Amino acid sequence: MTRFCKRGECDFPQLAKLLLKLLKCSVTTLFLSALINVTALLPLSQHAHSETVEPLQQGCKFPTRQYETRQSQYLEDNRIGEMVPLYRWGSLTGANMIIEGLNKIGLKYNRLSFDLIEPWDRNLPIDLITSTYEITPAQMYLVEGLLEHKIDVCYILEFWTRKMIEDYERAPDGYSRFRNEEEVNRYTDYVRFIVSSLRGRVKYYEILNEPDVTLFWNWVRLPDYINLIRKTVPVIREIDPNAKIVVGSVSNLAFKEPQKYLFGIARSSVVSMVDLVSFHPFFGASPAIDLYYDYYYGYADLVRELRQVLQFNGFTGKLMATEMVWRTSMNYKLDEPWVYSETVAAKYYARGVITNLGLDVIAGVGGENVAQIPTLVEVGQNLCTAMAGHQPIDMRVKIAASYDGPIAYCAFLYPDGNRMIAIWTDGVAKDEDPGVATTITIPSLAAARVTGIDILHGVQQDLEFEAKQEALVIQNILVKDYPVLIWLNGVTTGPDYTETPGDGFHRLWNLSGAKPGPQTESDRDGDGVPDEEDWCPDWPGSKKMNGC
């Protein structure tokens, strides 16, 4: 999670600290209730957007129609997941709500733990904070139910002891975990218990969550984390050799310390022992926020640099970007003050997921009351269905548009030979965006049918296209500030067609290579009212009410 803290204490007023604790302690309960209250009870037809549904192509004679989504159990892997744990006080009803909620959206993996992922609330009894050698019937029911619905489990191997908490209380400055072999051995013993209990049911085991965070008794110094990986991997391999092992899981990658920690892992020899390296890339990051501007546009290059360093040190696995979140007034958090309207947040979620999938990175969002926000649910359902079975590819695409800002796109291959292009204007997202008329040309490729999918509004439309000089040409596509998906059916390729599996993300600056500077007018809530004129700059509103 994004935090502005020194070791041990956050620089907030006492009231803010209390509110932060309440938010953290209640997030799972709120999420669970939201799964029934929203995803199960609200028909998609009642989901409201500020934008009206318009054709995906100017002058197209074909009508739009609803895009039909499917649940997780009927989808191939889309490499999109969520994080919803179930702690020991969780019930069978709560477990079932998690299963039904994730299945309804179409997610294909869930990050979970039976131990608290962030047990900072000192109001909790210490017995609820510390790890126990026990798995409740509800927790096992959750794991079995996820598998039954074809949702993979990514189990976060957290571990907390009374001694950790007491040691921190005695000397909070500079405290860190796993600095001695006794503590490491206690961890590997606990890992042995968890993996033995869940053998054959878990696809991924993740060694700790955000070990770089120095808050309270969480921190693990980098050399100690590397040593912990070295000692833990053989234990997992011995008990469950088919399981994949994930390391890293560092906090907000926009900041230098998490980057330094992650690249420290990448430069160590232990990466050759594991299958995935994970990180948490987006906590409200967008070009609308000056703090995040350079990071947002430099993210793809950062991922590519990380992959290169990892491969140089013997890593042959995949990257995993999880806990992505763009907050609205419905899941506001004190230490992540970047709040967007529901529509704008949904657009950034879609960009974040597609950007990572296009970079050949497994994508995941954070369990931050997402299911309480109908637009996010609908966009999630549309993305999960559309991306089922994809493989990212780099293919030649020519883009022509009269647009001054950046345009991003990536391409995907499907098992039936169809291709799909995701394309969007990659500037500051707004509630209302009329789109930019764009021509897409794909050399040495032909298609029997071309369909556009609007993931924000849940509609699709057959598109008009033509063949010109052995190229497929689609004119007047309305490219908007969220990914529009262009589905190519019945594809045949010519002798000059080329595509490469893997990273196929591209961003075109002004279609001429010129990169603009940061936005001169800040609008951090994304409601179209500049902050200087906005009476409520952190809460999206209307222009008529001065942004409130």
Quick tags:
548 residues, alpha/beta, nine-stranded antiparallel sheet, eight-stranded parallel β-barrel, 11 helices, 25 strands, 22% strand, globular, disordered N terminus
Offer a quick outline of the entry.
By secondary structure, the chain is α/β, with parallel strands linked by helices. 30% of the residues lie in helices and 22% in strands.
Would you give an account of this structure?
It is a single chain. The protein is an alpha/beta fold and 548 residues long. It has a domain at 518-548. Helices cover 30% and strands 22% of the residues. Strand 1 and strand 2 (9-10) form a beta hairpin. Helix 1 packs across helix 2 (92-105) and helix 2 runs parallel beside helix 4 (137-148). The longest helix has 27 residues, at 14-40. The two termini are 28 Å apart. The model is unreliable at 1-48 and 512-516 (pLDDT under 50).
CA-based gyration radius: 23 Å
N- and C-termini, Cα separation: 28 Å
Biggest sheet features: 9 strands, antiparallel
Structural class: alpha/beta
Spell out the blueprint of helices and strands.
Blueprint: E1 5-6, E2 9-10, H1 14-40, E3 64-66, E4 80-83, H2 92-105, E5 109-112, H3 126-129, H4 137-148, E6 152-156, H5 162-170, H6 181-198, E7 204-206, H7 222-239, E8 244-252, H8 256-266, E9 276-280, H9 290-312, E10 318-324, H10 342-358, E11 361-365, H11 374-386, E12 391-395, E13 398-401, E14 407-413, E15 419-425, E16 436-443, E17 445-446, E18 449-454, E19 459-462, E20 466-468, E21 471-479, E22 484-489, E23 492-493, E24 499-501, E25 506-508
Parallel strand pairs: 4-5, 4-11, 5-6, 6-7, 7-8, 8-9, 9-10, 10-11
Antiparallel strand pairs: 1-2, 3-19, 12-14, 12-24, 13-16, 14-15, 14-25, 15-22, 16-21, 17-23, 18-19, 18-22, 20-21
